[in-house]
Write a structure and sequence with these properties.
The protein is of the alpha/beta class. It is 45% helix and 15% strand. The chain has 13 helices and eleven strands. Strands 1-9-8-6-5-4-3-2 form an eight-stranded parallel β-sheet. Strands 7-11-10 form a three-stranded antiparallel β-sheet, covered by helices on one side. Strand 5, helix 6 and strand 6 form a beta-alpha-beta unit. It is globular, with a radius of gyration of 18 Å. The two termini are 19 Å apart. The structure holds ligand TUI. Ligand TUI binds next to strand 5, strand 7 and helix 12.
Length: 312
């Protein structure tokens, strides 16, 4: 399945693994890259030394392209941006903000820059600043989210820019991938379904929570702080939403989500921790290897798209 994105990134399949905080580390990312997708290291709130070590381990485990996601709200974003340039990481994606101030540094280092955007205005701005492609992420996604859905955002941004669009948010099978392509995307980025792969290092309890989740088990906390975050409902989301109603401080609320993510991913505390996952968790029903996951999704999407051409 060749698209402008698979050619740009020099990958076999136009499938990108999301740069998920605490989840997107080198075991998972190298498995994705070795399976023909683009594996991502999620820098999240980690210091540059951690990111540098992860890049080293990636290079030991794969000779295929990979990327690093920079979470722009991180206090370490500046130093992480520098390490990415020094290490000449093939691809960088950014999330939760505007990466303008790093674009020149990365482009001069020959890095492909793919900002995650959640609006048409931001998409146009990133194209102007010489982004190579865009991840267009709908509100169905897990973690920090925007307002618009993947269904509405992808075609509007595909029409507004010339650079290729990668759809994210709500995709976990071949139907979702084919639908995203129909909307104008040339690749997909997926998160939730990669959390439950065999190579993912997250605590078993976290995987079980996703596998067990139903369509209505997703909650958004933090709308009042301006940092809305989607996760699977539990005691934490209940406490958070209550505190939010009572007007708790920004710091107190923020700690519940980001501090809570470590608690859930590393310690397996799925009661008081933050189980970030997308609305599609209800569709994710089995733990597969990254290779099986990617090849089954691509095969299903290809079959569906063949069918649509045949009938079209
Ligand atoms: O970044 C993500 N997902 C994330 S980041 C994260 S860590 C975190 N946890 C709690 C609070 C805050 C961060 C967990 N999940 N996805 C990419 C994404 N980017 N979604 C939405 C956006 C976005 C939003 C606004 C991108 C640009 C933007 O522009 C604002 C501006 O500066 O104009």
């Amino acid at each position: 399945m060749k698209t402008r994105v698979s050619s740009l990134l020099e990958i076999k399949y136009p499938v990108i693994q999301g740069g998920m905080a605490w989840v997107a580390e080198y075991h998972l990312a190298s498995a994705v890259s070795n399976a023909g997708g683009l594996g991502m290291i999620g820098a999240a709130n980690a210091p540059a030394s951690w990111v540098k070590d992860q890049i080293k381990k990636m290079k030991e485990r794969t000779d295929k392209p990979f990327g690093v996601n920079v979470m722009l709200l991180s206090p370490y974003a500046d130093e992480v941006a520098q390490v990415i340039a020094e290490e000449k990481v093939p691809v960088v994606t950014t999330g939760a903000g505007n990466p303008e101030k790093y674009m020149k540094l990365w482009k001069e280092a020959g890095i492909k820059v793919i900002p995650v955007v959640a609006s048409v205005a931001m998409a146009k701005r990133m194209e102007h600043f010489k982004a190579d492609a865009l991840v267009v992420e709908g509100t169905e996604a897990g973690g920090h989210i925007g307002e618009s859905t993947t269904m509405t955002l992808v075609p509007q941004i595909a029409d507004a820019v010339k650079i290729p669009v990668i759809a994210a948010g709500g995709i976990a099978d071949g139907r979702g991938m084919a639908a995203a392509f129909m909307l104008g995307a040339e690749a997909v980025q997926m998160g939730t379904c990669f959390v439950v792969t065999q190579e993912s290092q997250v605590h078993e309890n976290y995987k079980k929570a996703i596998l067990k989740a139903k369509d209505i088990d997703s909650k958004v906390t933090g709308r009042s702080t301006g940092h809305p975050v989607r996760s699977i409902r539990n005691q934490m989301t209940k406490d958070y939403l209550k505190k939010e109603k009572e007007g708790a401080s920004f710091e107190e609320l923020e700690y519940l989500t980001l501090g809570g993510l470590r608690k859930a991913v590393v310690e397996g505390d799925i009661i008081n921790g933050s189980i970030m996952a997308g609305q599609i968790a209800g569709l994710v029903k089995e733990e597969k290897s990254c290779k099986d996951l990617i090849s089954s999704i691509v095969k299903e999407a290809e079959t569906l798209m063949e069918g649509s051409r045949y009938h079209g």
